[in-house]
Write a structure and sequence with these properties.
mainly alpha; Ribosomal Protein S8, Chain: A, domain 1; 5 domains; 14 helices
């Protein structure tokens, strides 16, 4: 049993050794094969890499050779150009040298000719001196004495001819001056035709039926009172069929009232709140229309580059009058007359038209300082960068300042021509408007007064005061004070009724 175990162990050991030796032999053979294959693959990879490197080298070498060839060609072309330039410069230098040689020859020829001329001149001077000496001997006078006698005789003859010529021109000028001046003025007037209508102080508002009158008056007259308070215009609703009369001296207020009435009648909703809303909108519309009128007037007359504020004032002229004559029509007429007269006299018609348009701009400022309108207009033109000759023409057209250019007398004459046309002006209207303005300004000078409106041709003055500034007792005393001041300081026909209105409003909103 033990022997069999020992034999089995020995057999196992011998079998293990044989297996180990066989396995090692097999693995060694495989390892050697793997090494051989790896060496072959490495050799192939090495050859491939060497081929790639050689190929890249050849590519880089060809690229470098191309770059070198391109650079060499550029250098050769540059060298060729330089050689051409050097050749051209050398040829130019040779040509310049040749021309210099030619100029030297010409200069020598000129010098010789000049020497000959100088010699001939000296010979001529000698001959002239000999002739002068011979003439002096023959006449018994020296050359200077003969020259003085000749000059004296010529001077006397020229003086007598000049005096006679000047006398003839003076006589002719005296005979034709008045005739030519009248001709220029008449031609200027004939070439400018304008209407001669006089401004009125009322506007008639036409309505479709008399039923609308009751709606305009409102319950107990509240609508018409609200409209008069908002616009400052007296609204006369009488028996005249299909017409309502708007009475007031200010054309702007009358226009606002007319447009507001037109919109209210079309809308159909007529009540105090709506009236105030419409009047506020219409005032803005009229202001826009003023600006549009100023622009259109400047374009029509070809006057460019005016300041926007001057354009707005020109538009305001449409609603102003001068002694009953519409101020904008008067300014347009004066501008056209100035342009025509300047053309006849050979002056600049554009400047003359500009000065004629602006000459009464001092009558429509937003504030009214105590200055003549010509001086105020000149200051406005200076403020808005008009040229000095235009400013002088505006300021001097009523002789308040000295005239410095020829534009000033032209503007003065054309202003007089426009105002002197038959039917153009009426002083009564201007005095009436001034009296109503003075009435309103007098009442407006009191503290607490918000608005003032002169109505009924100046027979009534309505004064609206702030409810938060004056109480009821002060309202009564204010009307008495205004009446006394008007009585003491102003001249007026009949009597003036002073109505002081104090209104308290409470406004709230339901949300």
């Amino acid at each position: 049993m033990a022997l069999s175990i020992i034999i089995a162990i020995v057999t196992f050991i011998i079998g293990g050794l044989l297996v180990w030796v066989g396995t090692r032999f097999i693995f060694k053979a495989k390892y050697e094969n793997i090494l051989v294959e790896a060496e072959k693959e490495a050799e192939v990879i090495k050859k491939n890499k060497l081929l790639e490197v050689k190929e890249k080298f050849f590519h880089l070498k060809s690229d470098l050779e191309k770059q070198v060839a391109a650079r060499n060609s550029k250098i050769q072309s540059a060298e060729a150009k330089l050689k051409q330039k050097e050749l051209a410069i050398s040829q130019r230098q040779e040509e310049i040298q040749r021309k210099n040689n030619e100029l030297d020859g010409v200069r020598e020829n000129l010098n010789t000719q000049l020497d000959l001329v100088e010699k001939k001149k000296q010979e001529l001077d000698k001959l002239r001196l000999k002739q002068v000496e011979q003439l002096e001997v023959l006449s018994g006078l020296s050359a200077d004495e003969a020259k003085e006698r000749l000059l004296e005789s010529l001077k006397e003859e020229a003086k007598s001819q000049a005096i006679s010529y000047v006398n003839e021109i003076m006589e002719e000028a005296k005979m034709t001056a008045n005739k030519e001046a009248k001709k220029v003025v008449i031609q200027s007037i004939q070439r400018v035709a304008t209407e001669t209508a006089i401004e009125n102080s009322i506007t008639v508002f036409h309505i479709e039926s008399d039923e609308i009158k009751g709606r305009i008056i409102g319950r107990e007259g509240r609508n018409i009172r609200a409209l008069e308070a908002a616009t400052g215009i007296e609204i006369v609703v009488d028996d005249t069929p299909e017409a309502i009369v708007l009475s007031g001296f200010d054309p702007v207020r009358r226009e606002v009232a007319r447009l507001a009435l037109h919109q209210l009648v079309q809308d159909g909703r007529i009540h105090p709140a709506r009236i105030e809303e419409i009047v506020s909108k219409v005032r803005k519309q009229v202001e826009e229309e003023v600006i549009e009128t100023g622009k259109r007037t400047a374009i029509d007359l070809g006057v460019h580059g005016l300041h926007p504020e001057l354009i707005r004032m020109i538009g305001k002229m449409k609603y102003r009058s001068s002694y009953g004559q519409n101020l904008l029509q008067h300014a347009r007429e004066t501008a056209n007359l100035c342009a025509v007269m300047a053309s006849e006299l050979g002056l600049n018609p554009k400047k003359a038209r500009r000065a004629g348009l602006l000459h009464d701009i001092g009558k429509v400022p937003d504030d009214e300082p105590e200055l003549p309108h010509a001086i105020l207009g000149m200051k406005l033109c200076e403020k808005y960068k008009e040229k000095p000759d235009i400013c002088n023409a505006v300021g001097a057209h009523h002789d308040e300042i000295e005239m410095q250019t020829l534009l000033a007398p032209i503007v003065q004459v054309c202003d007089a021509i426009s105002g002197a046309r038959p039917g153009a002006r009426r002083e009564i209207v201007e005095a009436y408007i001034k009296r109503l303005n003075d009435l309103e300004q007098l009442a407006l000078s009191y503290p607490g007064v918000v608005k003032t409106y002169a109505i009924q041709a100046g027979r009534e003055l309505r004064v609206i005061v702030g409810a938060d500034k004056i109480d009821d007792k002060e309202t009564e005393s204010l009307s008495t004070e205004i009446a006394k001041k008007i009585q003491d300081e102003m001249t007026y026909p009949g009597q003036v009724k002073i109505t002081v209105i104090r209104e308290t409003r409470a406004v709230s909103y339901a949300k």
